[in-house]
Amino acid sequence: MPAPIAAQFHFGCMFTLRAAEGLSPAWRDLARTVQGWISAKHGNARDLAHPRFYLGGAWRPSGSERVVVTTEQAVGSGSEEVPQFWAVRYEHPCDEVYFRQWRTDIGITALEDGSFRFALSTIHWLLPGYIGEEPAAPVPTAPRIVSTLVDSSIWSAFSGSERLRTTPEALVAGAAPALADRIQSRTRLSPIVLATREFDTGRLKLDTARLSRLLAGTATVVEAASSAIDKELEWFLPDPFRCWNGMVRIYQPGVRFDRVLDAKRHCRFFTRADIDARTPEAVEEMIVRGIVRRSRSLAADGILVTIDDVIAKQRESRLAELRRLADDKTLTEQLAIQGELLEAVDQENKTLSEQIRELQAQMDEAEERQAELQDEVASLTYDKDQLRLVAGEAEGRLRQMQTQRETLAFLRNPPQSLLEIIEIIGRVWPDRVLFTDRAKVSAKRAGVNKGRPDLDEAWRCLWAMATDLHEILFSNVDAKGDIAQRFRERSGCDMTMTEGKQTKNDKDLMKLRKLTYLGAEVDITPHVKYGSKAPKCLRVHFYADHEKRLVVVGHCGDHLDTYGSQWVS
User: What is the pLDDT of residues 530-563, one digit of tens each?
Assistant: First the structure.
């Protein structure tokens, strides 16, 4: 089934497989692993068990709609048992979107040193004739065959000089010099993703274990073992290339520390603030899409990826054989002409490939520029938010200063009433004490308004409530023990948390000690007190709002009725 023009590239990787130390796996072991991967996905290993799976052929596994498996080999400098070039194309429907078709191309090249180059690319497209809402593009993920080979016990996977893994590599103390060398290595072919830890929490901003699995076969994920590693990195990474305090940075192949522009062109980074603004999930997806969809290794010349590449190798070998066997001048000329035509086609293909690579490079550059602009916008947005925050704080301080000035002006003369006292206390401590309208009415009618020294005692009690009582009620340090006793010890003012037994048993009297606050009824039985009989008497009943950390005053004035006082004429 030919892939339409609208097919979308999903994932690509290329790495070298070398025999693990002490082992000597063969080409057949590698091909058999590919065979097992395809068979496992459709639960029918017998369909692909025929020897021609290795020699070349096409299969449609029984009971599997739209599943096609095709293989080709070109002997080249090898043999039929170990061909130099071998490829498989595996097509199947999507498990999640019925109208989506997937194609995975795998190319294996036997190298002279006995290792094998493994190249994989995956595309997907919607079937012709599909009309409907466009399904969301899936997040790029490495096919299981990639992680199987990278984690294999008989193979070691390398991308140039970089050993590939499906788990993050820990960057421990003393490893910074080696990492700096790896970043600049001319033989590195895949990106290095470095994740650092936050100074204050010691945590990573991204899930590096998940990121390593998604980037299997395409990149190396390195995570700092602690935030202290940042100081070590400062010695070995030049300033434009550094990574610290929760930042995540991607170092592409070909980075040179002596070229400052490489810090932007080849070292994309996300700061702690960037990740918080975009969310870790969104940044993870950006990193994965950028790496697996624009793998530079697959764009290199001479990398065999698909069956089409193998067929081209077969054609080259056949033409070379025909030229060697031809003994007729006319046949030789015909072969020469055909060879020239094929060379012309190949040259045209190379030219088109170069143009595609140039366009891809331009797209990459445009995307990098877009990313830079997004960073600038994010930075400006952050600065704007910070300025707005600073302006808000400054405005709050200005209001506080204005309130203080007004309060000081108010205090030029001693307060002449209980209402003036609670107005002053409310202005000085608006974030600690709230006087309700009911409290203000009771203050206006209070007997202590008749004059000093009773107003002075009222001032002392209310000031102590805004300072000592607030700290006792809401401070974690001072949160245990008898509240009334500790208040008396600190302020010298008297206080009780309850009423007498007979008063508590009288529902009507207890209703006087209830307050409707924020739509709910709360208890204001606790009260600070002075004296016992008007005018030398003050009762300040309150409710402690622990959520807002407020002392809410519901009554501030004469003694509320008690069981004993209601019988006094």
Answer: 988 878 899 999 999 999 999 999 999 999 988 7
In whole angstroms, give the CA distance from residue 376 to residue 382: 10
Q: Which amino acid is at 334?
A: Q
Retrieve residue 364's tokens: 């990459």
Cβ atoms of 254 and 266 closer than 8 Å: yes
Strand 169-171 and strand 192-195: pairing?
unpaired
Whether this prediction's pTM lies above 0.70 is answered by: no
Of 486, 465, 473, the residue nearest 530 (C-alpha): 465
At what angle are helices 307-325 and 329-410 packed, to 10 degrees?
Answer: 160
**What is the Cα 350 distance to its own chain's centre?**
40
Distance (Å, whole) CA 205 – CA 366? 27
Distance from C-alpha of 538 to C-alpha of 179, rounded to nearest angstrom: 74
pLDDT at 43 over 70: no
For strands 520-523 and 514-517, give the pairing: antiparallel
Higher pLDDT, 53 or 175: 175
Evaluated on CA atoms 181, 184, 188, 192, the torsion sign reads positive
Cis peptide upstream of residue 453 (ω within 30 degrees of 0): yes
User: Is-contact 441 555, C-beta < 8 A?
Assistant: no
Q: How far apart are the first and last CA of the chain?
A: 105
The residues, any chain, with a CB within 8 Å of residue 81's CB and separated by 6 or more, are 27, 28
Beta bridge partners of 18: 156
Helices (H), 153-306: 176-184, 208-214, 229-236, 262-265, 272-278, 280-292
CB 118 within 8 A of CB 14: yes
